[in-house]
Amino acid sequence: MLRSLRSFLVFTWMVVTVIPTATLLIFAALLVGSDRAWWMFAQPWLSAAIAVVRIIGGVDYRVRGMENLPDRNTGGRVILCPKHQSTWETFYFPSMTPYPLAYVFKRELLYIPFFGWALASLDMVHIDRSARGEAWNKVARLGTKLMDTGKWIIMFPEGTRTERGSQGAYKSGAARLALATEACIIPIAVASGRCWPRKSFRFIPGVIDVSIGPAIHSLPDESSGELIARVETWIELEMRRIDPDAYSDEAHPA
Predict the structure, then answer these.
(1) Which of 235, 246, 217, 215 is nearest to 71 (CA)?
(2) Tens digits of residue pLDDT in 36-74
(3) Measuring CA to CA, how many Å separate 144 from each of 88, 124, 192, 210, 237?
């Protein structure tokens, strides 16, 4: 009962606050630009959401590997590739990075009242997944442009949320973008499914582990498939380290 009440209060807060925040963000983006609107409204609201989930929902987090995030002045172009198990990480990463992030996401999210409209006013990359060739061209064009303005691109390599303890098919989009732009990829393991399960409106009090890996650079003559395979290997091995209970039923190699 208490857990349900906590979850209800958190989501009520989100619904009540997202409408005025999104409205102000949209007008701010028109008046002072997308970047200033990000720091004025988007980033503070996302930080507040993570705090509300922690304080009211009972979902804390701990992060390892912050030192692996490149310095903005020397790190060059950066693509973040996190494991995707719940909505939590979509709120967390923009709230914790010192630089604006640009998500690559499906355009259907733009149709969500207020939240989607606010996304549309920010400099991000929304794609039509049904038009793969056109989608990739848009990612390459806008991704390069945004990284050249100092933004980091964030792409979920599995494309969608996966259940805790499972593994989706890793898409090559992030690797293709890295090869085209000479960007590095930062692999990130996130065990958010243990506290905010996929497609759930209830929190499970506990701690979400986040592990940020060292930058992965492309090798000479490496294909996008080979590059994303290295990203996948790091993330999936790290997931089994930070959330071993979720993978306890797996057969262990001899």
Answers:
(1) 215
(2) 999 999 999 999 999 999 999 999 999 999 999 988 666
(3) 27, 12, 30, 27, 30
Task: Give the type of residue at 132.
Answer: R
Residue linked to tokens 């409106």: 201
Q: Structure pTM? A: 0.91
Model confidence over 184-227: pLDDT tens digits?
A: 999 999 999 999 998 888 899 999 999 999 999 999 999 999 99
Neighbouring-strand partners of residue 61: 208
Q: Which domains does the chain have, with CATH numbers?
A: 60-247 (3.40.1130.10)
Residues in the chain: 254
Residues 6+ apart with CB under 8 A from 154: 79, 80, 81, 82, 93, 101, 102, 103, 104
Strand order across the 125-127 sheet: 59-64, 206-212, 184-190, 78-82, 152-154, 101-106, 125-127
Q: Which two tokens stand for residue 238?
A: 């790290």
Residue identified by tokens 């990463």 is: 93
| Owner of token pair 């599995």 | 158
* DSSP single-letter state for residue 107: G
Cross-strand partners of 153: 79, 102
Residue pair 82/108 in contact (Cβ under 8 Å)? The answer is no
CA distance 165 to 148: 36
DSSP class of residue 190 equals: E
